[in-house]
Amino acid sequence: MDTTAITEMSGNEPWDFVGDHTFGRLALNVLGQPEIFPVNYALAGRRIAFRTAEGTKLMGVLLDSHVAFEVDEVTADGATSVVLKGTARKIETEAQAEELDLADLHSWLPTLKYNLVVIDVSEISGRRFRFGPEPDLTPVM
After folding, report:
1. Which of 2, 28, 72, 98 is the most buried (most CB within 10 A)?
2. DSSP 8-state code for residue 58
3. By the 8 A CB rule, do 68 and 83 touch?
4. Does some domain include residue 140?
5. CB neighbour list of residue 60: distance below 8 Å, 6 or more residues apart
6. Confidence class for position 102, pLDDT limits 50, 70, 90
7. Can you tell me the mean pLDDT for 56-67?
8. Gene3D superfamilies recorded for this chain (predicted)?
């Protein structure tokens, strides 16, 4: 079995990968149901920041702040996935928002998103996957 097909990211690699991207997926619990939301984000230090309108995503964060966030990328040769876990909170004041330096946070959709949410990351892990030929699954007799 080829053990080099999957490699764990180490050191600052996962953070560098997250900092090089702007699109991820927020996973959270909304009234007992798992939900995943695509979001544009910016890295604010060691935190994920995104804007959202009123609705299910914001309600989920306010009801249960424990979240996961994934940033991934697929190329012709392989894929990379970084998963962050932490606690999400709505930023309540303009002073708190200004502390985050979010000049790189831009919405892709022309909708009003007045709510700023930050994920305080407590855990991060990343893996790289190298694509290759599918293994021979023929049973050995």
Report:
1. 28
2. H
3. yes
4. no
5. 28, 29, 30, 31, 35
6. low
7. 93
8. Electron Transport, Fmn-binding Protein, Chain A (2.30.110.10)
Q: Residue 41: what pLDDT?
A: 93
- Report in angstroms the alpha-carbon separations of 137 from 1, 99, 133, 140: 12, 55, 12, 9
CA distances in angstroms from 130 to 8, 18, 71, 76, 87, listed in the order given: 12, 19, 17, 10, 31
Identify the CATH number of the domain in which residue 53 sits.
2.30.110.10
Full residue range of the structural domain in which residue 100 is found: 6-130
Q: Which of 6-10, 15-19, 81-85, 115-119 has the lowest mean pLDDT?
A: 115-119
Measured distance CA(24)–CA(41) in Å, rounded: 7
The number of domains in the chain is: 1
Token pair for 63: 């009801």
Region 95-107: mean pLDDT is: 65
Contact 58, 90 (CB under 8 A): yes
